[in-house]
Amino acid sequence: MDLNKIKEVAQSYEKDMTAFLRAIVKNPGESCDEKAHVETIAAEMKKLNFDEVVIDPQGNVIGYMGTGDKIIAFDGHIDTVGIGNIDNWKFDPYDGYETETEIGGRGVSDQCGGVVSAVYGAKIMKDYDLIPEGYKIMVVGSVQEEDCDGLCWQYIINEDKVHPEFVVSTEPTDGGIYRGQRGRMEIRIDVKGVSCHGSAPERGDNAIYKMADILQDVRALNENDDADETEIKGLVKMLNPKFNPDWEEARFLGRGTVTTSQIFYTSPSRCAVADSCAVSLDRRMTFGETWESCLDEIRNLPSVKKYGDDVVVSMYNYDRPSYTGCVYEIECYFPTWAIPKDHKVTKALEKAYHGLYGEKRIGAADTLEMRQARPLTDKWTFSTNGVSIMGRNGIPCIGFGPGAEAQAHAPNEMTWKQDLVTCAAVYAALPMSYCE
Hints:
Layout: H1 3-12, H2 14-25, H3 35-47, E1 52-55, E2 61-65, E3 70-77, E4 97-98, E5 102-104, H4 108-127, E6 135-142, H5 151-158, E7 166-169, E8 177-178, E9 180-181, E10 183-192, H6 207-223, H7 247-253, E11 257-266, E12 276-285, H8 291-299, H9 302-306, E13 311-315, E14 317-318, E15 330-331, E16 333-334, E17 337-338, H10 344-357, H11 368-372, E18 377-378, H12 386-392, E19 397-399, E20 414-416, H13 417-435
Parallel strand pairs: 3-6, 3-7, 7-19, 8-18
Antiparallel strand pairs: 1-2, 2-6, 4-5, 5-20, 9-17, 10-12, 10-13, 10-16, 11-12, 14-15
Helix pairs in contact: 1-13, 2-3, 2-4, 4-13, 10-13
């Protein structure tokens, strides 16, 4: 099929895609409460004559076009974060708004717009015979990503027994093609103390004071350099060939970070010494870092070693049930991943894009300057389901999706209609590009 025809057909579905997206986001769909989103997507898939539409026991909605044995998958998570302080919104986040070029509402960029483009991209593939022989197209509306990225794909791969040849993540990419991301993990530090009356604090052992020492060392990891004389070498060391054989990909993805995100304590009263203190750490990992190395890094901090057995460093587990009641427990570890720049999947997506839209990112007029200042092929700042697809399971994964990373989790979230069209066209052209 002529590429100009694919663009023309995708453009003709702009109103349908806009209406579909607005129908999804009109209901709250926070993680573990995605039922209304799933039902809306399943109904649209059936209306567009998908060959098969299923909702698995975890609650993921999965549609298939074609009947081959080999699978090319498109994934978009359909859960959202909450709206936060409603006073920060200029419009109703679930009613949203629409202009000639924009759509507003919670979830339009992060990340229901990607599912909309994938559903219509699959329709174009089927209607115009763009599904290669022996293949079928899989479109997934996945659940619980905001709580535990990749959990849904662990379930799809291990329990649904589905193993695609490759997966396109439809997370927002600001008009670019993204081939990787930093990983992350959730770490907890627990410190024990001994309580006593606050009038004589020397009789006790204040867990908060111990934690204060530890947090200074954690902060040093994020802020220090990696010079020979620096006792606590900063995470920037992973960009240095001296410390990391994977430094080239680490420089592509960016350095790791660590931040203290939560703090907890116990104390008999406000006039007593605290007898325990705990913190949560959000740890972003670059190439060359693993969950073991990150835990050991905290355990080897001078202040942690100083307090010995009174400190326990561990990784969180996730065990919250999905909206169907399914519990699929997993460690809160989300591996770093990147598909090589010369991989067949990377080249196929670049070829499809170049044939349709040229060498640079495109988008609405108010986005062009920012987008075209960046390389077409780049990486995400945040985390995606690719942590499971490729990070844990080695299935090639690449990203191309409507919307902007900066809109994720933000008040007044919006996306652009042109992005929906662009992505639907590229998705439709990709399978044939891959199989040439």
